Each structure stands twice: as structure tokens, then as C-alpha cells.
Amino acid sequence: MTKVIFILCALIGCLSCNKKTTQIPAQRDLLAIVANDTLHVGTIFGPTTYFYYRDVPMGYDYDLAKSFAASIHTHLKVHTYSSVEELYDQLETGDIDLIAFPCVPTRERKKTFTYFSTHKNAPLHLVQIGGKEAIKNAAQLQEKRIYIPRNSQAYTRLKHLNMEIGGNMRIILAHDSVSIDMLIADVVNGKLPYTAAYAPLAQLYQQYYPQLDISVALGVEQTLGWVTRNSSTALNETISLWLEKMDETEIEKLYTRYLRKNNTFKPHPYFETSSTSSISPYDQWFKEYAPQINWDWRLLAAVAFHESRFNPNTVSPMGACGLMQLMPVTGAKFGLDSLNMFDPEANIAAGVQYIKYLKMVYHDIENKEEKTKFVLASYNAGPAHVLDAMKLTEKYGGDPHIWYGNVEYYLQKKNDPEFYNDPVVRYGYFNSGPTRSYVQNVLATYHNYISRKQ
């Protein structure tokens, strides 16, 4: 750390001798980054790298980049692109300072770029449906079709593998607008036979879709990590020193948070077995605060159940806290702090104030039942992605005030580059599956509650 501070001090000292221009150099190094107080990073929206959760930017690479920017005392500016090729182009022209995305080094690119091992080394894995017909080893890929995105980092490895097994594997390059996430979804749905993904992503998807088989490795472990220009010598040395000093437990925490499925929540006895009029130990506060938003208290209880399973002390992997699972930044806007974040009544009161705010966001939706669906979706995901979906719905001729068949449909499309790169979309990639299920499940639980004798 002392050496990093020395580099920064020396560079800032040099700055006083060169104040003739404010133009950002095409090939800027750490000096210009510090002078402009902004680190420009490029990445790609994705379920692990960079995304918005309840309107808060998150992701493994985002959190890591934010940590590095803080270490050199600059702000972080994230630029998103649609492909790895575009990332390299923007880095080479100087529009960004580094690529914060798990890139695979190649001999040719090392002539121009420097690579940093910011991710755990991982092999490429075949992604297929398991069962008796599943391929058991790479040699069985002869005469088989394997689909990967055009300009995919996996392409070089698959070409080498094809030569190793005899040259009869058919590598099908999907359109530029198709992401690896979409290809994996097509394998899950039976539309495609095979694709390939590096271990962390393949393992994450297998946890959510147990029918996937990722047992066949398509080569040895490869380095995955960030990229800078070779010419950015001071920046490169600073990143190297920062990575050397980084605590391994911090990396492991990020991996646990973003690359492993969380199975924290257990079935709660109040939902599973209760035959009494009581839904939870907190019914009195649901009844007290629900009138503030003109909701049936049992709908508020259903939200709390699906948020925390009525556990007032729970913290999600993303950092949401308490019965109503409010993010700290959101809770702070509605009266929560470190002292009362886990107090059941205070958390419910803050959750109700947040719901009141969300109802105001959708004030122009006149139908109460429809508005409730939008509020529930936004409570789960944040309004940003829902507002994006409303804009898409309107653009493509749907009704932006109707959930099913309209806004829900276009929310689902936000995992498709053709749609999340649309000019009307501000917040990029989104995996809508959990949010769409959340709306259905909360309403189903609510109807279960009202069917009981109270």
C-alpha cells in the first residue's frame, strides 16, 4: 500500500507541471485518471458481472472495480457494451481505462493488452441436458453441433479442441445479439443441444437448473480477469500491487455473493402448518400499518413472508435486511438506521413507506389490482427495470398499464441484448424470472391467507 501511495503522490506532483489542457488523452494512464477524478471501466451487463438489484448497481466485477477505484481515491464510471470485441475496441482507443469483465488472454492480444487474474481460474464446460443421452467426454462431440456467441472467448478453445478430436465438431456461431445466457436458456428449454460456458457461470446456472449437465470439461483451467493497455504502465503496476494486498477472504465473499446460489431461506411453520387465525408473530403491526397504503394487512404479511420468511434478523446475500428486506440505502430514506434496521415494527413501518412511494411511482395506473402487481414487481426488483419494461411495452404497441401479457412480457425480454440494448432502456440486463415468480407467489400467498378463517 505504501508503494501505491508513493506512485500516486509522484503522479500528482507531476500534475502541477502540466496543466495546459483538460482534454483526456487517447492513451491515458494513472496520472490522467487521478487528474480527472474518474476511473472509466467497461463491462457487459450480466447476472454475475454487472446488474441492478432493487435499483442498486451490483455484480462481482462492479464491486471489485468500485473497491479499486476507492483505493486510488477516484470515482467509478461504468460503461456497458454488448460484446467482448467491443470492450477491446473501446480499451484500445482509450475510451475506457480497463475492462472489468472475465476475459481470457490470447497470445495475440497479449501484444497489446495486460491481463490480471481477478477471477478464479476456470475451465470451459460443455452445457447440455443430463441423462442417458448426455455426452460423457469431449471426443463424443464429433458430428455434434455446439452453439456459442459470435466473437465468444470460447471460440478459440473450441477450435483447438476440434482439431484435437478430429475436426468434425460443428461450431455454430450465434448472432451478435445472442448472449451466452440466452444460449443456456435455449439448452434448458430443449431448443439447442449444446453450448459452452466457463465454470463459474456454468455452475451457477446448474444450481438453478439441476437438469443441466456440466460435467464435461473442454480443456484445462484458464485465466479469467480484467484487461488494460500495455501502455498504461503506472495503472498496471498499481492494479498489481492492489491485487497482491487484497485479502483472499474478500474475493471469497464476492464469489459467495454473486457466483453461488443462496439457500438461506427455509420453509416457515406459519405458512406450512398453521391452521390458526394467526399468520405471523407480527400480525398486529401488519394490521396497524397496512391502512397507510390502503392494503389488506394480509397482503402486507404475504410480502413479508416472501421477503424474509418472517425472520426479522435475516440479511440476504445482496445486503437486504430485516422482515421487509430493505436495502440499507432504501431503508435510510424511510427512517431506518443501524440501530433499528432489524426491529420488526420499524422495519415494517419503513417497508410500508417504501410501498407508498412505489404506489406514487405508478400513480397513473388507475386499476388497483394492476397497480398492485407493478408495486410488487418493483418491491422485488426496484422500479428501474419495471419502468424500462413499460417503455418497451409502449414502444412495441402494448399497454404499459397492464402487467400480464404486456409489461411482464417485456420485463422477460430484458435478458435479450436486442431489448436491453434498446435506446429506450436505461438499466440494461435483467433476469426477470425471480421477479415474475415473486408477483405470482405473493398474490397466491395472499389469497391463501384470505381463505383462512380469521
UniProtKB/TrEMBL annotation:
Record membrane topology: Peripheral membrane protein
Any single biological process term in GO: peptidoglycan metabolic process
Domain Solute-binding protein family 3/N-terminal: start-end pairs: 38-262
One MF term in the entry's GO annotations: peptidoglycan lytic transglycosylase activity
Organism for this UniProt entry: Candidatus Gallipaludibacter merdavium
Name of this protein: Transglycosylase SLT domain-containing protein
Chief location bin: membrane
Matches recorded under PANTHER family: MEMBRANE-BOUND LYTIC MUREIN TRANSGLYCOSYLASE F
Subcellular location: Cell outer membrane
Keywords: Cell outer membrane, Membrane, Signal
Family, similarity comment: Belongs to the transglycosylase Slt family.
Gene Ontology CC annotation, any one: cell outer membrane
Annotated coiled-coil segments of the chain: none
